[in-house]
Amino acid sequence: MRLQRLKERNETMKNLAVIGYGGMGGWHVQHAQKSDAVHLAGIWDIDAVRRELAQSHGIRAYSSLQEVLGDPQVDLVTIAVPNDVHRELAVTALQAGKNVISEKPVTLSCDDLSAMFAASDEAGKLFTVHQNRRWDVDYLAMQQICNSGELGEVFRIESRIHGSRGIPSDWRREKEHGGGMLYDWGVHLIDQMLLLFPDEITRVSCEFTHITEPAVDDGFRLELTFAGGKTGYVEVGTYNFLDLPRFYLQAKKGSARIRDWREPCEAVRCKHWKESDVLPVQTAAGLTKTMAPRDSVTVDCYELPIPHSDVHDFYRNFCRAIDGKEQQIVTHGQMMRVMRVIEAAFASDAAGQAIAVSI
Ligand code: NAD
Questions:
Q1: How far is the CA of 77 from the centre of ligand 1 (A)?
Q2: Which residue range(s) make up the domain with 211?
């Protein structure tokens, strides 16, 4: 089936080696085993226990990084190791002539990222980051509303993800490994926001939380202001026993909400203001017309069908980009923009105030 689909498209599979066989490396391995774009050549992990585990699953475990990079059969490597090692491994693999996918966050600073781009340019090999949450159906529903214009011009989007288990107790708690939730979930949500609102960012305000961990942020509240006045709000929380909606969108002709990533997007489109006919409603302290709920005479309420999504399109695109048949979906410009927002968020939290930017 995989080969047939490739033959129909007149393409060959690329050989992939996965570096780091932990949680996410395991995902890439399983994904590759079902892919019609890549063939799994093997894995490399510094931990012998992880290599033995791979072998026990019938997966080739290389005996060193050098062996992976020296294997002429390997076309691309995916780097799925803690965040502080992405730069070093990506540059080494690019210099060895491999195309490289880095897990997110691509790295920890704009300077690091520039060095990675330089290595990619010098080697003439492709380099990208695995922004797999571009295929999340909740994000795709928001994209549909923004692009269709069905609710008019969108002027504010709030994007939140809430858990209640604190920050994971692995390297994500440690600053030297690039821990913290801004680098972890934040990078996905910021990437999505910058695609929904591509305008220049003029102001960044960020506040970290440290409820379960003093060393790194276990959550954050980030407000982005765009040229022209649109605003985007990104929040990650790991101590929320009741969660707020995953997405909340305001547009000139209505609103949309996704309560939870498993649920469809609810939209409300305003048909009439009919201000004169509004019946006041009773609150504990008196009557209000301003906050009176809407009815079917003035609004249409509907749900969007869950968008189609196939996460295999990430590898398909990258392999086609290697062959010069497509542009890579996650571009260097987009990667740098996200990194600049992250740096500005750190600066804003440290300064305790919003900062003016041009991103
Ligand atoms: P993990 O701790 O489960 O696994 C990391 C693995 O890397 C371990 O097996 C470790 O032995 C190995 N390792 C460490 N240093 C190495 C080196 N120098 N060379 C080879 N192997 C090395 O961590 P994880 O949850 O798999 O996270 C790995 C990366 O994947 C992180 O960058 C993380 O942000 C990212 N990630 C992405 C997603 C996503 O949805 N895109 C989800 C989870 C994690």
A1: 14
A2: 134-308+339-356
